[in-house]
Amino acid sequence: MDALTRRRFLISSGVVGGGALAAGAGVLGFHELLRTAEKAKAGDVEDGLPTLVLVTLYGGNDGLNTVIPYTEPAYHSARPELAYAPERVLRLDEKLGLNPMLRGMKRLWDAKQAAIVLGVGYPKPDRSHFKSMDIWQTASPGTPAPTGWVGRWLDGTKAATEAAVSFEPALPPMLVGKSRIGACVSYRGLTLPPGVSIDAVSALGRAEPGESEMQARAATSYADLITMSRVVRPASTGPEVQGHTVGDMVPATGTGGDNALSAQLALVARCVESQVPTRVYSASLGGFDTHAGERVWQEALLRQLDDALSAFVDRMGRTEAGRRVTVVVYSEFGRRVRANASDGTDHGTAGPVFVLGHSVAGGFYGEQPSLTNLDDGDLKATTDFRDVFGTAVAHVLAGDPDRYLGGYRARLLPLLTSR
Amino acid sequence: MTVADHQAVEKLLFFWHGHWATSVAKVRSPQLMLGQLRTFREARDFADLAHRMVHDRALVYWLDGQHNKKAAPNENLARELFELFMLGVGHYTERDVKEAGRALAGWRVILDRESLISDPQHRDTGRKTILGTTANFEANSLVDLLLQQPTCRRFIASRLWFRYGSSTQPIPERTREAMAAAFPAPLEMLRVLFSDEAFQETRGTMVQQPVEWLVGAMRHLGIRPVSMPEQVFTRVYWAMEALGQRPFAPPSVGGWPAGAAWLTSAAAQVRLTIAGMLVDLVRPGPITPEAVAHLLCIDRWSNRTYSVLRDARDDRLKLMLGLVSPEYLVS
C-alpha cells in the first residue's frame, strides 16, 4: 500500500477529506433511509426510476473458472488440476459454460435475464488488488483519481444523500464524489452476546422525548440493528442471520468486501420494494484471492454468490420497481491462465462481468479472449470496463457517460431491453 | 478540575495521535510509532511539539519526507503541515506549499538510527518565499514561521474544540480567541475551554470515540488490559478494528471521523459484543440502575434506559446495557 497517495487513502477508508470528514457525513440510519420513501411519495420526485445494484467481488475472481471455455485444449493444459471437465460445466453455448456452482445463474441465463460481457478489463493492467480495484471504482486507469465514477454522477446530478447507498462496512471509493458522497448504512449481521434479548436491544432503541440529537442517533442505531436483522432474516439460510462473531469481521484475505452478500441484497430488496428513491446500491463479497487450493474455496464463494444473486433477481421480478433493477457484478481482475504450484492462480487480468435483471437483454457481449494469444501469460482484455459502466450510466441512470468516466468515450452496449 | 487529573494528559496524547495521524500500516515499525508517542508525552507545548514532529521519523516516513529531494520534491509533508497540522485549509497558497516542501527536503529515515538523517546532497538551501516572507527556510525556521501566524493558534483551538467540545457546532469566536490566548500550552487552552459557557452548552452532543468508550468502560469497571486473558484482549483488539478505530492505525492523515460516524448499526452490534466480554471479566454483584449510573458516572438515566435496566434479567445484563446505553455513548 506504499504507493497509496493520501487522497486515495482517504476514500479507500470510507472517510472523505475536508468538510465532509466532520460530523460523520455519509452515515445514514436504516430508518432514515426507509423514511425517504415516504418523503419521495409525498413530494414531486419522479416515480419509478430504474435502479443500479453494483456487486463487487473483492480479491480477483478467477474468470476462467467462472465462465469456462470448456472445449479449449489450452484451458485444460494450462491448469490440469483446476480445470473443469466438459461434462461438469453448465453449458451456455458450444464453447462456454458456467461453473457447476452457478445453477441459479444458469436459470437466469435460460430466462434471458443474464448478460455476460466477456474479457472485460482495461489497458496496461495493474496486478495490485488495491490499485486495480481503485481503477475500476474510479474508472481512471491512467492516473489516480480523487473521486469514484458514481461519486462524480452524484456531483453532476446534485444528488441527495440517499441517491447512492452501500450496505458494506465502509463506504467504497466508487461512491465518493467531490461534493457528494453516498450513504453507508452498514450492517454486519446480528449476533447478541449470551443473555441479551432482542427485546432489550429494541427497547434501548426507543426515542426519548427531549434528548439530544446525538443521543437519539445512538438509540436509533440499536433500533436499526434489530430492524435490519428482521429484514435480512427471511433471505438468509439459517434460522438466525448469518452471524459473524467479532473475530471474523475482518475479511480473511484482507482485500476488502463483506461475506454476507445475501444479507446486503435483502436490505437492497426491502428498499427497492419500499420505493426508497435510491438509484445506486453497492454490495460486495470478499475472499476471491485464491492463490492456493482454489477449487474448494472458489466453489464455496461462487455458491454463495449464486444463491444471493438468483434469490435477489427472482424477488425483484415480483414488483414493478424490482423489474427496473439492473445488477452488475465485477471483480478487480481475473487470474492467470496457468495454475501455480499450489493449485491456485495468481493475479491476472481480464474477466467476465455479469449483468442481471428483468430489464436485461440476456446473452453474450464482447469476445472471449484467446487462450493462446496471451500477454505475458495473461488474457488480453477485449472490452473496456468503462463501456459497461458507461452503459449503466446511460441506460440505467439516464446520465451522459462522457461526463463521468474521466474523458473516456464509452461504447455503449445494448445490455438492456428497450422499454 | 479534570485537567489536574493524570487522565487528562492521556486523553491529550490520544488527541495528538489523532491530530498528527500516523499509521503503522505504512510506517510498519513499532519502534518508530513508539518514538512518536514518546514525543507527544515529552513535548512541553505545541510549539515544542511542532518542532519535534517535523523531525519525527514516523511522521516523516508516513508523509514521504524521505522521498523529498531538491531535485525531485515531494510536498506531502509540507501540505499536511499547512492543511491538517498547523494552519487549516484556506490559509495558504499552493505556492506556499511548494516552497515549504523545498524547506523540508533532504531528510532520510534509517531504521537503526535514533534520529532523522540529514542528507546535505538533497537539501535545498536556497531562498524560499513562504506566506509572504523570504528567507533561507529550513525545517525549524518554517515551523517558527507557521507558529507565528495568528491562524495557527486559532486552528489548534478549533481542533481542540472539535474533539472536546463539539464536532458539529463550530467554535464560537469568543471561545476561540480566549483559548488562542493560552497558546501554545494545550492543557491551559483546555482549562480555558472547560470553564467557557459555550462548552457547557455542548452537553449531550459529544459522541465518545470507540477508544475513549473502551478506555472509559475499563476504568469504570476496574479492568486493566494487562490482566485481561490474552484471548479476550485479542478479541477486543479486533473489535476495535470492527468499530473503525484501531490505535496506531488511523484511516488517513486526516485522523478519525467524529460524531454520528460512530453511531452506525454495525457499530452497535460490535459494542454489545465488547460490553459482554468486559462485564464477564468483572462478574458484578447485585446492582440497581442507580448504582450502574453511579459506577459509570452518568447523571441520570432517560426513562427509556432506566426501564431497560430495571427490567434486565440479571446484574450482568444491567451493567452491560448500561455500557452500551445512549447516555454512556454521548456526553
UniProtKB/TrEMBL annotation, chain A:
Species annotation: Micromonospora trifolii
Family matches, as InterPro entries: DUF1501, TAT_signal
PROSITE patterns (alphabetical): TAT
Native organism taxonomy: Bacteria, Bacillati, Actinomycetota, Actinomycetes, Micromonosporales
Top-level taxon of the source organism: Bacteria
Identification of the protein by name: DUF1501 domain-containing protein
Listed PANTHER family: BLL7424 PROTEIN, DUF1501 DOMAIN-CONTAINING PROTEIN
